[in-house]
Amino acid sequence: MGRLKYHPQRDYRTGRPIGTVVAELQSAQRQSILLQSTAPKSAELLWFYACPGHKKNPGSGGYNTPSPWGRSTFYEDRGFQGRHYECSSDHANLQPYFSRCNSVRVDSGCWMLYEQPNYSGCQYFLRRGDYPTTSSGWLSDSIRSCRLIPYASSHRIRIYEREDYRGQMVEITEDCPCLQDRFHFSDIHSFHVLEGYWVLYEMPNYRGRQYLLRPGEYRRYQDWGAMNARVGSLRRVMDFY
Q1: pLDDT by residue (tens digit) across 192-217?
Q2: What residue ranges of the chain are covered by domains with CATH 2.60.20.10?
Q3: β-sheet with 71-77: strand ranges across
Q4: I need a labelling partner for 58 at 20 to 30 A (CA). Which of 49, 74, 161, 183 fits?
């Protein structure tokens, strides 16, 4: 038996202590975690593994939301039938695992799917839910790579009317279904994402081509992969479940 480690734990919602985690390091392959409650009426023994099949060490760090534990399953046929592949992290090339994608089930997290390998081509934003068919046209049956979008507790983005952060600037912290109605311009040539992850839509009301904006600088529309500067709406990436 290995040594024991004690880690005080708190409720992320209230900041109050809820107990102590006792980590029993039994071997290089596994770690048991026992939560000792400050009001010891019951206890749970949990085993966490980094990979399926009870392999590798558990990942370190704190998890104040289940969103980082993302999971999505891609099916070759409609209605969640046929050959399928389960994914729990970014994947630059899904081609070896299925030839086409006609339904998707997102169990947790927010995802961006791409038509081409290496996160290129048309993008499709999915939240938790069942997507039994792609035939309606909003999602391609050619999905070749995917990203699990990290959780963010706050969102802030600055939009600029011209390239290189010139012209009129507006800072946004909430979803915006129509930039034209709210700010009276529809062409945006540069972004500065200060906090959180955002999805840019080419048309109002979250329609048209989609582009994932990660924290960082976008000095011209080519930087986010667009063919022009037209932007109709912006939405924060959030998982409400």
Answers
A1: 999 999 999 999 999 999 999 999 99
A2: 71-149, 156-236
A3: 81-87, 71-77, 103-108, 129-131
A4: 74
Concatenated DSSP letters of 164-233: GGEEEEEEE-S-BS-HHHHHS--B--EEEEEES-EEEEEETTTEEEEEEE-SEEE-SGGGGT-SS-B--E
Tell me the mean pLDDT in the region 64-92.
86
CATH 2.70.40.10 assigned to domain 71-149? The reply is no
Give the bridge partners for 36, in sequence order. Answer: 20
User: Does CATH place domain 156-236 in 3.30.43.10?
Assistant: no
How confident is the model over 103-149, as pLDDT tens digits? 999 999 999 999 999 999 999 999 999 999 876 666 778 899 999 99
> In which element (H, E) is residue 82 found?
strand 81-87
Q: Are 200 and 229 in contact (CB under 8 A)?
A: no
